[in-house]
């Protein structure tokens, strides 16, 4: 068995005025170096809707926060951790509006 668990960990912070509680869905996309969308790993496991944005919305990881929340995903994959070059995080609100998207270099953010 050549699969391994990869842990993706990040924090989300509520930036609304008065820290009004918000909820929605989160997706994370791990991208191997020089690989097309067919090789990307989606967390949760979903299909890409359009323009590299994952979906369908209802299959995203649900969240609800007032201030701050750590998020952790664990995925089992045969792709070695070193093969991934970047990760993207997509955060949607309950109306399915994209609130936030960020992409970061996985090599610079590793914690072995």
Profile the largest sheet. 5 strands, antiparallel
Approximately what portion of the residues adopt beta-strand conformation? over 45%
Gyration radius, in Å: 14 Å
The strand count comes to 9
Helix fraction by DSSP (H/I, runs of at least 4): under 10%
Number of helices: 0
Structural category? mainly beta
Write down the overall geometry: globular
In the predicted model, the low-confidence regions spanning at least 5 consecutive residues are none
Rounded mean pLDDT score: 88
State the distance separating the first and last CA atoms.
21 Å
Helix/strand order: EEEEEEEEE
Compact description:
The chain is mainly beta.
Describe the structure.
The chain is an all-beta fold and 112 residues long. Helices cover 0% and strands 57% of the residues. It has strands spanning 4-13, 22-32, 41-43, 47-50, 53-55, 61-65, 68-77, 84-93, 98-105. A hairpin with a 2-residue loop joins strand 4 and strand 5. The radius of gyration is 14 Å and the shape is globular.
Write the layout of secondary structure elements.
Elements lengths: L3 E10 L8 E11 L8 E3 L3 E4 L2 E3 L5 E5 L2 E10 L6 E10 L4 E8 L7
Antiparallel strand pairs: 1-7, 2-3, 2-6, 2-8, 4-5, 8-9
Descriptive labels:
two-stranded antiparallel sheet; single chain; mainly beta; 5-stranded antiparallel beta sheet
